[in-house]
Structure of LAFE_0C06040g1_1:
Amino acid sequence: MRPFVTGHEDLVHDIVYDFYGRHVATCSSDQHIKVFKLDKETNEWELSDSWKAHDSSIVSLDWASPEYGRIIASVSYDKTIKLWEEEPDAPECSGRRWTKLCTLNDATGPLYSVRFAPGHLGLRLGAIGNDGILRVYDAVDPSDLRSWTLTSEVKVLPTPPASHLQSDFCLTWCPSRFSPEKLVVCALDQALVYQKDKAGKFYVAAKLEGHTGLIRSVSWAPSIGRWYQLIATGCKDGKVRIFKLTERMQNDSDSMSIDQEGLQEDSNESNSETGAPELKVEILSESSDHKGEIWSVSWNLTGTILSSAGDDGKVRLWKASYSNEFKCMSVISAQKKT
């Protein structure tokens, strides 16, 4: 590891790689977004552009799926979501390389987290903030990215919290294209799995229990080659938790062991009111190796390795053993790798 100097004049709140890992975007309390590109020869990050994006601290960013172009969403304490698109013909470091597509201003309080849905769901994003409401937006026409519509508004918290930091709210989408649309929303010490019913409305399908502090980060693993889902959380209580999520459907392991008639019966074991499969949640791992607050968790592209970062200033890499137990396989610090 080595220092990465962003040039921001205030606290950096978020840093996000694009799909290919060749560009990275940062945001800060200095109200600026910066985009850097990787120089393949020197392996250094070079500034591509920097611009004033909001009128208050910018706390969360995300890149859209590359099939929709080079688009960034940002949220701020100024209560707005802004969409930005790259103009590849504009000069680098000119402040004009990224142009604003639109501003979404339905929130009644500071916004803390924004995430695009996986590409197979279309150009869609979710955001949550201090008012405790999850809002989901869709691009009306993928060929005209300046027009977006609010398609879902879900009250995650019964009453808005009096005062909390942006790190107390986060969300992540289920990346699987073979599963009904789902996402996890974390607000304070709650982690709720929302799923769409047959009417297209989000409802609480499951809860990730066991947290005894504020949840700082959540990450949903890509489910390549797995019939179940994995979700990781990082918590103020100092623990990295990994949850197993299974759908009570035809591909459930219990269902596969019964005869064809029973298989057909079990495939109908979905919530008759929602028309969606029931979800079963188990906790696979609960680790406190960081011996302090956990600030970030993230899966790799194949969902086989989890990285976590905590107050100990180290990044820990977790991998499942043959018995499906997650063990710390590596510890990375600024000084050495062990």
About this structure: The helical segments are 253-256, 260-267. Residues 250-270 have pLDDT under 50 and may be disordered. The chain is about 5% helix and 50% strand. The radius of gyration is 20 Å.
